Amino acid sequence: MRRFRKLKLEDLGKLHIPMNRAKYFVITADHNVSLNLLDSPHLKQAASPKHEQLELFSAVQSARVGEL
């Protein structure tokens, strides 16, 4: 198959590959999981850095007990 054209999802079915497990790890000519994420309405939220509250006294406490 691959000699003549790129693999598609239907070709993987002909090779008896369990698609319910393999579809997350395989990129074929007609299926790419990453491209579906680009059309997601939550793309901006997923790409932005997560806000984190920094601890003020955690360094003092760890220095007092000798932890790193």
- Please tell me how large the radius of gyration is: 23 Å
Category from helices, strands and their pairing: mainly alpha
**Helix residue percentage:** 40-55%
Task: Characterize the main sheet.
Answer: none
| Outline | elongated
The fraction of residues in strands falls at under 5%
Work out the number of β strands. 0
Question: What is the CA-CA span between the terminal residues?
Answer: 56 Å
Seen as an oligomer or otherwise, the chain set is single chain
Q: Given the structure, what is the number of helices?
A: 5
Mean pLDDT: 78
- Low-pLDDT runs of 5+ residues are none
Order of helices and strands: HHHHH
Number of domains: 1
Kindly describe this structure.
The relative contact order is 0.10. The chain is 43% helix and 0% strand. The chain is built from five helices and no strands. It is an all-alpha fold. The protein has one domain.
